[in-house]
């Protein structure tokens, strides 16, 4: 058994526990003393450090005070500079505001003038628009009148005749055509153009199949389109046959006639969608023309008429040329005589110049003599005066 200070080391020994407790208390006190000594040393160092830091803080506070004074002076300078800058800025702003005010005043004046001018121009344009509106209103009335005219077959026929008359009178001379001419078969053509033989006079008749064309344009279904096309074919065929029967007379007229359509749209529709009608018109020798193609055809006829009239007047032209040749010969003869006269006149002028030259020389010699009073010499005819040469003069 283990013993300590003569006492056995057993858990149930009170003395042992008392010794252990005393030793533990002694160690605790010793530790506390050591800790207190250490803390006292640390407190002294801490106090020294605090004193040093207080000194540094005092120095910094002093520096901070100096800095505050410098900052106050700087703030004063900045305040003064800012006040000066504000005053300068206000002055510049006043000047700028004055310039802006003047600029705005000039701009407003210019804008007012431009606005006044624009209003004047706008008023003129409004007046022009009012006039145009009046023209449109009048044109609308004219269009309605035209619709009324075209809605009636008789007035529509008169419209086509008037348009045909206008084109023919512009393209041909007055004696080259006859309006509303009556043919030997007592049929009346709207126009008969007097072409030479061949081909002979050619008749022109105006037709205007408006109803079938409008029905064709207004068709919305396939049935309506077919029905309108059938009506168009029927109307055009009837016109072609009527012209061929009435206005193509063997031995009296040309071997063909013209059907005038006063609408380019109808003419284009026939040639675009009804080529069989065009072929039938060729077979019947009826040529379908529009205002444009009619003008071209008439210009060609004008050239034919001019050529025919030139051939008819070929004898007169030859006679006129013969007379012109004789006139040219007479001019040559008279020019030769004039040349002879001019040559003789030139010779006469040359002789006159020669005589004048001699007279001038003699006058110059006479100018070098002096006339003096001399004793008259007796003679059978009375006293005479001697002509003595003058002494030459020295310059």
Principal-axes geometry comes out as: elongated
Which ranges are low-confidence, i.e. pLDDT below 50, for 5 or more consecutive residues? 143-150, 371-380, 382-395
What structural category arises from helix and sheet content?
Answer: alpha/beta
Strand order of the largest sheet: 3-4-5-6-7
Report Rg: 69 Å
Describe the overall structure:
- By secondary structure, this protein is α/β, with parallel strands linked by helices.
- Among the domains are: 117-151; 154-312.
- Helix content is 73%, strand content 7%.
- The protein contains eight helices and seven strands.
- The strands form two sheets. The chain has a five-stranded mixed beta sheet. A two-stranded antiparallel sheet has the order 1-2.
- β1 (3-4) and β2 (7-8) form a beta hairpin.
- α7 (291-312) crosses α8 (314-367).
- The longest helix is centred in the N-terminal third of the chain and has 138 residues, at 14-151.
- 11% of the residues are buried.
- Mean pLDDT is 76; it is low at 143-150, 371-380 and 382-395.
Write the layout of secondary structure elements.
Blueprint: E1 3-4, E2 7-8, H1 14-151, H2 153-171, E3 177-182, E4 188-193, E5 202-206, H3 210-218, H4 222-247, E6 257-260, H5 264-273, H6 275-283, E7 286-289, H7 291-312, H8 314-367
Parallel strand pairs: 5-6, 6-7
Antiparallel strand pairs: 1-2, 3-4, 4-5
List keywords for this structure.
single chain, 395 residues, alpha/beta, five-stranded mixed beta sheet, two-stranded antiparallel ribbon, 73% helix, elongated, disordered C terminus
